[in-house]
């Protein structure tokens, strides 16, 4: 009988396997044809059970920048995409994803401008991974934004940083970390680095 072909997983996809392993879904996850919706639905259920057993497991509040949300929604790489894995982590409930009202109204334009060839798939990804899973917070006022203008290289990024800090986020996940090099009171990380942080935190919390 021929051996079943094994699949090679990269670092970002291993993050999903860590989640699956924690929820005792290893065998299920290896089945051919597993869908993202199935993973999210079952992992959410198992994660809730795990959190009841391990009270010290607390969700980290995270704001994902528009570039991460757009890339995660439009990717064709699935679990191989670090940005997609961040969105999945929020959809599953491992982290509390935060998005502002302005980001909610801007995302369609961003997706259309950056991914015109995948606009339909990207908007579907947004509906499935962000709407209903990310908490919407109010946009900061100009007075609230003002103190953050000196912490960014691009003034347009100040409202994002202000929203992240004022809403109690511990991490801002973005591809443009250099734009926030002077940010204080919050970790600014690329998706890949954030996933590594998550892997370590989860493993430590459930030991």
Model description:
The protein is of the alpha/beta class. The protein has helices spanning about 10-20, 25-30, 35-55, 65-75, 80-90, 100-115, 120-130, 140-145, 160-165, 190-205, and strands at about 60-65, 95-100, 135, 170-175, 185-190. A five-stranded parallel beta sheet has the order 3-2-1-4-5, with helices on both faces.
Task: Summarize it.
With 207 residues, this protein is an alpha/beta fold. It has helices at 11-22, 26-30, 36-53, 66-74, 82-92, 101-114, 119-129, 142-145, 158-166, 191-205, and strands spanning 60-64, 95-100, 135-137, 171-173, 187-189.
Q: Write the CATH homologous superfamily.
A: 5'-nuclease
Order of helices and strands: HHHEHHEHHEHHEEH
Give the class from helix and strand content and strand pairing.
alpha/beta
**Range of strand content:** 5-15%
Task: Give the key terms.
single chain, 207 residues, Rossmann fold, five-stranded parallel beta sheet
Which SSEs are present, and which pair or pack?
Elements: H1 11-22, H2 26-30, H3 36-53, E1 60-64, H4 66-74, H5 82-92, E2 95-100, H6 101-114, H7 119-129, E3 135-137, H8 142-145, H9 158-166, E4 171-173, E5 187-189, H10 191-205
Parallel strand pairs: 1-2, 1-4, 2-3, 4-5
Helix pairs in contact: 1-10, 4-5, 4-6, 4-7, 5-10
């Amino acid at each position: 009988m021929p051996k079943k072909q094994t699949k090679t997983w990269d670092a970002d996809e291993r993050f999903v396997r860590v989640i699956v392993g924690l929820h005792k879904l290893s065998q299920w996850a290896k089945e051919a044809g597993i869908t993202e919706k199935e993973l999210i639905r079952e992992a959410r259920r198992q994660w809730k059970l795990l959190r009841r057993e391990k009270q010290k497991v607390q969700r980290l509040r995270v704001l994902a920048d528009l570039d991460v949300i757009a890339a995660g929604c439009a990717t064709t790489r699935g679990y191989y995409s670090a940005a997609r894995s961040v969105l999945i982590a929020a959809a599953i409930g491992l982290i509390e994803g935060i998005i502002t009202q302005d980001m909610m109204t801007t995302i369609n334009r961003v997706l259309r401008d950056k991914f015109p060839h995948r606009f339909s798939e990207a908007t579907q990804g947004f509906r499935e991974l962000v709407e209903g899973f990310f908490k919407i917070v109010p946009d900061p006022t100009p007075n609230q934004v003002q103190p953050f203008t000196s912490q960014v290289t691009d003034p347009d990024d100040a409202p994002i940083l202000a929203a992240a800090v004022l809403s109690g986020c511990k991490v801002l996940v973005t591809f443009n970390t250099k734009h926030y090099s002077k940010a204080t009171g919050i970790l600014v990380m690329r998706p890949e680095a954030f996933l590594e942080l998550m892997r370590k935190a989860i493993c430590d919390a459930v030991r």
